[in-house]
Amino acid sequence: MRPTADSSWIVLEEGYDSLLECSRAARFAISNGFLGVRGARAIHRGGRWVANSRTLVAGLFDTAGEEPAIPRLAVAPDWMKVRILLQGEPLIHHIEDATGQERILDMQRGAVIGRARLSNASASGVKLRSFHIASLSQRAIGMQIILLEMEQGAIEVTLEASIDAVDIGLLSDRAEHGLSVWRTESSGTRLAVATAVSLQIDRRLVPSTVCGLSQWSWKWTSSPGQVICLARTVAMTRAGKDDIDPARGAQEALESAQMMGWPAVVAAHERAWDNRWACSDVEVEGDPVAQQALRFALYHLNGAANPADEHVSIAARALTGDDYHGHVFWDTEIYLLPFYTLTWPQAARALLMYRFHTLSGARARAAAMGWQGALYAWESADTGAETCPSQVVGPDRKLVDVNCGKQEQHISADIAYAVWQYWRITGDDAFLREAGAEILLETARFWASRTTMESDGHCHIRGVIGPDEYHESIDDNAFTNVMARWNIRRAIETAALLRDRWPESWRRLSGQLKLDEAELQRWGEVAKAIATGFDSSTGLFEQFAGFFTLEDIDVAAYSGRSVPIDVVLGRERTQRSQVVKQADVVALLALLPAEFPGDAAAKNFEYYASRCGHGSSLSRAMHGIVAARLGDAETALDFFRKTSAIDLDDRHAAIEGGVHIASLGGIWMMAVLGFAGLSFGNDYLALAPTLPAAWKSLSFTVQWRSRYLKIRISEPTAIVHIAMEAGDPMKVLVNGEMFTLSRVEPLQVKIKTLAGAVS
Description:
By secondary structure, the chain is of the alpha+beta class. It has a domain at 8-278: Beta-galactosidase, Chain A, domain 5 (Distorted Sandwich), CATH 2.70.98.40. Helix content is 34%, strand content 25%. The chain is built from 21 helices and 34 strands. The strands form eight sheets. Strands 1, 8, 9, 10, 11, 13, 14, 15, 16 and 19 form a ten-stranded antiparallel beta sheet that branches. The chain has a five-stranded antiparallel beta sheet with strand order 7-6-12-18-17, with no helix packed on it. A hairpin with a 2-residue loop joins strand 29 (697-704) and strand 30 (707-714). Helix 7 (345-357) packs antiparallel against helix 10, helix 10 (411-426) runs antiparallel to helix 11 and helix 12 (478-501) crosses helix 13. 51% of the residues are buried. Substrate binds at residues 330-331, 581-582. Belongs to the glycosyl hydrolase 65 family.
């Protein structure tokens, strides 16, 4: 149970601070894409501390019995509850014991390790070590190990291990010793929980003295130095209303783990993490803070996905907290899919298949609003129906109407973008034929019906919200319109590709969608006519129609604020101003740089970056990518550090609702797509690196069409080294010069400039 000795692989918390406990429970969460467990302490007193201990299961949604009925990720039974009494008095966290307490997130092994000295009101005490995992090799399995060393002898010890299902909101279908089955009230989704608990005292197995349905209890008299080991294994399985009984699956998973024994279960889990790190690790030499931030981001990204389940996606807080009710946003496709597509394509495919399986919900939403094709939900749960609430409590504690569910429609183009990028990077033709093409065509059909040709000869998209949510009910948002145009053009390209390469697939799909050449031609005409807001004389995109006429406020003058700028200015003034909540035109620049000719990229970045209040955790990552691509590595590094601080710095806002998984994806994007300058063409990968001065080297691994590449960019020698571990020869473009790479001969290219000068 010892953590790795390399500090870049661990997050360490020493001492004890009850005010930070909820945020640290999120930071120290463990997950395997199916089972998520917040990193609460092994022993707690109840009350507020109980809220820190929480288990979430992917896809387990229920409504909360309120109007309107909004699906929420249900809380599963707390399987890690432990209570220890010495002489009948419970152990608690004393201030004087705080120096002996620490909690470690071992990111290399995917485990949380705790050490503490705990005592009761009479000063009887124990030394405690704890270890728990959510198995990455057997996703149904969670495991908890607690070691206790008694300080005094002749003490009456009571140890209770239980599963707490109080106030979780699920209905009990079955309850027997070590096995329970729960059901959501709204959907009938069932959750089975099978548990095995054992206790050894000085390596001697001791039977429990009390054995309830979900409780195990032992009593004995201690001796000095006595060592107690509590081992608990839990198996959880989820099943739909009409699926087979999940209890059998939970029992089989538990039996398999018990036959292996907990050391073997842990070893298999660690091997699975070794495999993930081999495919995804990013190494930075010269900047230990950045290295730890990258490892933290990659730890949570690798733990958030489950390639075995095509019916779930990754929520805005993954499985680390309750914020946004476990709903899925555009965050997944824009901020997470790049990482999975380039390092874990099986996980990327499953996430996109979730969108394919919810396509019927997107079609129904478009039809209900009077349009054709597929309009994906801004907030999605299990069915693809819109789950965005109509009102929320604002920063001033007043109710605020939420229009995102009706107006933030760019998500359909965002999903299409992720589909196309996945296919281009992986070459997964089967996915394109069987799922991706239908998403591309139906989202394009939506955009073609959503636009209106007007007397100026342009197609307009009115009454939307772009990524900048400070401005609502706007017309011709540049991000939305350009992404819509891109979506339509890729759909037309997809139709031609299917017709030429897979005519049978085209006949089937076009017949199913009732899509003919006349409609495709109309789409092309719409794409040509969409208003984009680009002014060729200035090189600027107007964020939306009328944006340049709004009040121009100096955002830098409010740099010392402790609350979002819309709270400082007030909602109405913010809406009348050019203050931007988050990357909007800058996000477009990050996603579709080819849409910015000549020096338009630099001009738009300079204009909009100075007006951005970064009121979203998503914002700085996009700015960091663009700044790095423009050659300003030090500005990009500042965005990198501020994004990293969101979840790692206790001086920032509390993260008790869960880690910001999209900003963690953005950290990887800034390193690989920004500083390394990774991009791709139709048949090649490209690199255009610009490293911060402090970074001596940057190394990472990516996959490209069944090829495994290891890339190292060395700043002192200005050399890019690329080795292919598997796959056929391919083309690589390095700073504009094309090379051929093969397994036989690694590529080593000396480049002219590397560190931080602005180009």
